[in-house]
Amino acid sequence: MALSRKHYEELAKILGVNNASFQLIDDISSFCKNDNRAFKPNTFIDRIKEIKSNAIDNNGFRRLTCKNASVNIINDEEFFLNK
Asked: Going by C-beta distance under 8 Å and a sequence separation of 6 or more, which residues neighbour residue 27?
């Protein structure tokens, strides 16, 4: 069974959110290319970079994610109870 675009997108999300190393991204990209000749490694890597950049907030902290919902606890008034 070949992987689909949906699978590649999910892999990109996992790698991006977890700040995967270049070596891991390169290894998975090679695996995907072997699985599907039409796979575009550069597009995949660009998507991971986009996800990585969205996982960092304006203060330089990693956002906590829960099922695609981004939460920034630093600015959460109820979390810190100090506002």
From this structure: none
Note whether 8 and 42 are within 8 A (CB): no
- Residue 49, classed as helix, strand or coil, is helix
Prediction pTM value: 0.66
Query: Which residues does the chain have with pLDDT short of 50?
Result: 67-69
Q: What is the DSSP code string of 11-36? A: HHHHHHHTT--HHHHHHHHHHHHHH-
Q: How many domains does the chain have?
A: 1
Count Cβ neighbours within 10 Å for each residue of 38-65 and write b for 16 or more, e otherwise.
ebeeeebbebbeebbeebeeeeeeeeee
**Residue 65 domain boundaries:** 5-80
pLDDT for residue 3: 83
